[in-house]
Amino acid sequence: MILVKLGGSVITDKAKLRTFKRSSCDRLAKELGRANAPLAIVHGAGSFGHIEAKKHNLHKGFTTKSQLHHVAAVQRDVRELNLGVLASLIDNHIRAVAVPPASAAKFRSGVIRQFDPDAFGRMFDLGLTPVSFGDVVPDESMGFSICSGDLMMEAIAKAFHPRLVVFCADVDGVYDADPKRNRKAQLIPELDKSRLAGLERTESANADVTGSIYGKVERMLAIAKHCEKCMIVNGNVPGRLGKAVSGLDVVSTVVVPG
Amino acid sequence: MILVKLGGSVITDKAKLRTFKRSSCDRLAKELGRANAPLAIVHGAGSFGHIEAKKHNLHKGFTTKSQLHHVAAVQRDVRELNLGVLASLIDNHIRAVAVPPASAAKFRSGVIRQFDPDAFGRMFDLGLTPVSFGDVVPDESMGFSICSGDLMMEAIAKAFHPRLVVFCADVDGVYDADPKRNRKAQLIPELDKSRLAGLERTESANADVTGSIYGKVERMLAIAKHCEKCMIVNGNVPGRLGKAVSGLDVVSTVVVPG
């Protein structure tokens, strides 16, 4: 199995509320058609989730009743994005079906307390492609919390041990310095825990309630234990995702455990 | 708790593929604002589900691989309708969140094998209004099957024993003859099993993969055992749903068990 994350920064304009990049998603859907194994897909919430979630402190859990309207609204919005992604995949011959996080997992304190692989397994068995996403979820201790797409990636990887895990992002991979500020920044082709610890930390300019690239790589290190290969590729460069999922060499950062 | 079914024949044009009647739904959402207890809502699939499901025999379960594209497409379509309903409810101050059937239940042979009330209970506890819907679902013996909105209505009623269950349909209730063919047909204000057995059976003109009004009333008889009052009201007549959920007398058929 190949597990692919379509980053919120690739399929949405993260700075503009609820802006789905349908043509980018269509191109990526076509590239996914080159996969040489069954697919599972997770997408981020991008500007359908993070902006409003941050504004109303949804990542902090229940603090005031006035948040509840926004819990409902953000859940609706991320499902609108999910429908866009499903339509794009289906129109490109991938039999995609939605598996919202809360239909596969129970949450406590912002982490998964219990995961039901069957929610995905039933779809695989039928020959369908499950598509999960970042969402606001009921949380046993916080009332509600944010389940990031990356959290779902880890749960799926742990349960199904995919051959390949691809994080499709808006960067070529991880650099040894911030490439936006340092022209000499070099892409790191292979990254492990000790190399990560030595990297300079920077924060993203746009709203994100689920952590920086640093947090993402830490999650990838955990995922790398459950798969043969775990990599970041740039989804904005045509062809790279297609190369990755068909097993060809491609510009990327491969994250290795240990 | 009050459990309301928004019939597919009320919120969609059942004869025209994927036609959401947003203004009807908005009016009903406003009427639901008069409810004097927490709400749970289920809606039918209407023309977002039945037409394509019937065309590709999805109600018969897996028979050929070519159905799988349509399983994905119909699931996507009913979620599009669900998003429309959620938007309508949220815009009318109901904090509505989606609970797809497969996130609360497991299915075998077209019936529910296991139901997890928590999927709804967690939403109630937060002060949110769960909204479920008719859907194509994974099925342990058939591959996939249709879970009708009415099947979800029964499962929710069984688990939560609502005070009131309202089926919002495109008719005033059940008649002693077909009112479209017999001008002397009389509305039956109260219907039980023996009265139902004596009624003439007619079939609906539009596609429906989940049974006729006769089947619906049989389901309502089962539901009536789990609630104080179970009724059909006409959702096309302004004000009736609002009267029903606020506890006022209204033109309807009340279905009583036994």
What would you say this structure looks like, in words?
By secondary structure, chain A is of the alpha/beta class. Chain A contains nine helices and twelve strands. Chain A has helices at 8-11, 22-32, 50-55, 67-91, 118-126, 149-160, 193-197, 213-224, 240-245, and strands at 2-6, 39-43, 96-98, 105-108, 111-115, 129-133, 135-139, 143-147, 164-169, 190-191, 229-234, 253-255. In chain A, the strands form three sheets. The first copy, chain A, has an eight-stranded mixed sheet, with helices on both faces. A two-stranded antiparallel ribbon of chain A has the order 4-5.
Secondary structure elements and their pairing?
The structure is a homodimer of 258-residue chains.
Chain A: E1 2-6, H1 8-11, H2 22-32, E2 39-43, H3 50-55, H4 67-91, E3 96-98, E4 105-108, E5 111-115, H5 118-126, E6 129-133, E7 135-139, E8 143-147, H6 149-160, E9 164-169, E10 190-191, H7 193-197, H8 213-224, E11 229-234, H9 240-245, E12 253-255
Parallel strand pairs in A: 1-2, 1-9, 2-6, 3-6, 9-11, 10-12
Antiparallel strand pairs in A: 4-5, 7-8, 11-12
Helix pairs in contact in A: 2-4, 6-8
